[in-house]
Every structure is written in C-alpha cells, then in structure tokens.
Amino acid sequence: MEWVLIGVGVAALLYLVAVYNGLVSLRARVDQAFGDVDVQLKQRHDLIPNLVETVKGYASHERETFDAVIRARNAAASAQGPQSQAASEGALSGALGRLVALGEAYPDLKASANFQALQTDLGEVEDKLAAARRFFNNAVAEYNAAIGAIPAALFARPMGFTPKTFFDVGEGQRQALDVAPSVKF
Questions:
Q1: pTM here?
Q2: Which pLDDT value is given to residue 179?
C-alpha cells in the first residue's frame, strides 16, 4: 500500500513538473513571438523616413502629412508593450495611408521607380508584420488558455505566470482605421 501511495505521489509530482515546463515553454514562445513583431516594426520604422523623403521631393507643400507621419513613427518607435505598441502602430498605419495616398495624387511621384520600390517594400513589411502579429496573438491565446486551465490554474499565478495581452489596436483606433484617409490639396 505504501508503494502505491509513493507511486501516485511521484506520478503527481512528475505531472506537475511537466505542466510547469509546458507553461515555461509557452511563455518563451510568447516572448519570441513578440520579438518577431518587434523586428518587423523596426523594419517598418526604418523604411518610413525613406518613403517620406521620396514623397517630399514631389509634394513639398504637403507638410502636415509629413509631420503627422514622422510624429506617428516616433511615437510608435518609442512605445513599450503590446497594447501601447498596438495603439501607436494603429495611428502610424493611418498616417502612412495618407502618405501613400499622395502617390496617387502626383503622377510624377507615382511613376518614380524609387517610390514604387519603397511602396513595394512597405507592402512586404506590412504583410510580414501582420503575420507576426497573428503568430503573437496565437501564442498569447495558447499561453493564456494554458494558465487558466486546471491543474495549471492552481499554481500558475503564484509561480509568476500571468496573462499576457494581445496585440490589438483597441476600439478607438479601430474606428479610425475603418475610415479611408483623406487627401487635401
């Protein structure tokens, strides 16, 4: 009888160790996914000044649009954490939409090989960024579900496993992103 109890105790301990290790692995996956988002955001932030300078040469009187893009880029570059970054990136996406819309308004700019290459690069970065955000949000969902499920829920919080936040633009920014950018001449 003693051996059975010892065996059950050892099995329970091994199970808890396996659950703990699984949570550690999921947390590491969330951190790695957030790092991937950061890499794509850095590429985006590095590309924006080149795009702005190219457009400035053709539409120098569109100062308000350029300033808005630069302000949004700087705010996005200095944001920390998923929620702060998501909000600032939403504002940056809106400002970039207005900047790219200028390309449609200026035929010479639209025909510029440099502008076209930058637009292509920006589109590729945006696609990679969207994929990285989806991967991050999926990792967060798996992690949050794992720490909320029994038996992990019984010991996850005391051991430092807290829920992570999704990379979401939020309600206020979502409404702004649903509105088409306006171009004024």
A1: 0.74
A2: 55
